[in-house]
Specification:
The complex is a heterodimer of chains A (about 200) and B (about 190).
Chain A lengths: L2 H15 L1 H15 L1 H7 L8 E8 L10 H11 L5 E8 L2 E7 L4 E7 L4 E7 L3 H10 L6 H31 L4 H21 L1
Antiparallel strand pairs in A: 1-5, 2-3, 3-4, 4-5
Helix pairs in contact in A: 1-6, 2-3, 2-5
Chain B lengths: L1 H15 L1 H15 L19 E7 L7 H7 L6 E3 L8 E5 L6 E6 L4 E6 L4 H10 L8 H30 L4 H21 L1
Antiparallel strand pairs in B: 1-5, 2-3, 3-4, 4-5
Helix pairs in contact in B: 1-5, 2-4
The chains are: A alpha+beta (about 200), B alpha+beta (about 190).
């Protein structure tokens, strides 16, 4: 097998294995930029955001601000939930914990004075599902979360690999060199011109 | 004929959008390997996003808008404004790919304090990654957004046209299908489990 053969197969097979991520990033990017349009197309514009899950008595000491996320972790566990979470102090009496997985989001509201915990599930929306996956990154969320982050890095390195292998394949096509060079330079000049004025 | 058109569009579009693909790939790597999420970053711990004092000026009393403030400071360009603070001061964020600035303007005292973020390659590509959406105060912001749109649409096009072009290569069908199957199975596993 020559290097050209290897390079072509690398370009194609990398594309095939990372295709779901590539599609997800492309479609979610459109959703980010045109959120209103996408929610109309997907029919999610009028979806009621939250539905009640439970309400129960709950009591837990409220720590200082820097330990608030530990309380969020405890509330999440006590509610029998798992997933990434964020903890926010809404006001002196209310602490909100958002528990997030790709397919499900839950909002836990802890009312400190009333000693009550209210849970609401978010109704599934395809546009939010896509943007949620797009923004999920980083090594801080347990083994599976870390493995997802590894795949995010592989996709990013894969994109660099596509660029490099694509450039090589184009350069091998002698009849396409000039027009390809025009496209490459036009892109580079446009990019520089826009970014310098941005 | 159709395949030839698809193959050439796939290639020339990729060549044209190479700088954008590089920016998104590099910024994704940076953001994915950030020590902690951006929301938890304190300015003192993140030199690439720390604000550095640049100048303070008393403006003409006739200046009465964010745009007017930027023009007076010779900093006109794409910007956005936060809600006024309790003391009436307004923070104007002057967007800039290399050195963004923020101007804290007190309309009552006619005073403007300018701070900037110094250039860091990492912050630069991350800023470009997160810059999207129309409605910019200046045309260049909307042109950038159009390019972001083109890149996003092209990513979907490369995926679809790539599958088409692969399927035409009979010799690569079997292994291509294996790799596609692995990718879809992995993706589905993560969607369901995290």
């Amino acid at each position: 097998m020559t290097f050209s053969h290897f390079n072509r197969r690398f370009h194609i097979y990398l594309g095939m294995v990372l295709l779901p991520w590539f599609l997800m990033y492309g479609l979610s990017a459109v959703t980010f930029v045109h959120g209103g349009l996408m929610s109309r197309i997907l029919g999610t514009k009028d979806v009621k955001p939250w539905r009640p899950l439970f309400e129960r008595a709950y009591d837990a000491p409220v720590p200082t601000a820097d330990k608030l996320n530990d309380l969020g972790e405890k509330i999440k566990r006590d509610a029998g939930l798992s997933g990434l979470h964020g903890t926010y102090r809404e006001n002196d009496n209310q602490i909100n914990v958002y528990v997030y997985t790709f397919l499900r989001s839950t909002q836990l509201k802890y009312f400190v004075n009333e000693k009550r915990l209210i849970a609401e599930d978010k109704n599934f929306r395809l546009d939010h599902f896509l943007t949620g996956m797009h923004t999920r990154a980083g090594f801080r969320e347990g083994l599976l979360g870390d493995l997802w982050a590894v795949l995010v890095s592989i996709v990013a390195i894969g994109m660099l690999g596509w660029v490099a292998s694509g450039l090589y394949m184009w350069w091998q096509l002698k009849s396409k060199r000039w027009l390809g060079l025009v496209a490459l330079l036009a892109g580079a000049i446009s990019f520089i011109a826009i970014v310098f004025r941005l | 004929m159709f395949s030839k058109f698809l193959r050439q569009s796939h290639m020339y579009l990729a060549l044209f959008l190479t700088p954008w693909v590089l920016v998104y790939a590099l910024s994704t790597l940076f953001m994915n390997h950030r020590a902690r999420p951006a929301s938890e970053n304190r300015e003192s711990e993140a030199p690439q996003t720390a604000w550095v004092f640049e100048q303070e000026r008393i403006l003409d009393g006739s200046v009465n808008s964010a745009h007017g403030v930027l023009v007076a400071l010779e900093l006109d360009g794409p910007h956005f404004v936060n809600k006024p603070a309790v003391d009436g001061s307004i923070t104007i964020f002057r967007q800039d790919a290399f050195r963004p600035r923020r101007v804290i303007w007190s309309p009552l005292l006619h005073k403007a304090k300018v701070e900037r973020q110094d250039f860091h390659a990492r912050a630069f590509v991350e800023r470009l990654h997160k810059r999207f959406g129309y409605g910019s105060t200046h045309r260049i912001g909307n042109i950038w957004s159009a390019m972001v749109d083109l890149t996003a649409a092209s990513i979907v096009f490369w995926a679809v046209s790539g599958v088409w072009l692969w399927f035409e290569l009979r010799a690569l069908r079997k292994w291509g299908l294996v790799f596609l199957g692995i990718g879809v199975a992995l993706f589905a596993f993560f969607v369901v489990t995290i």
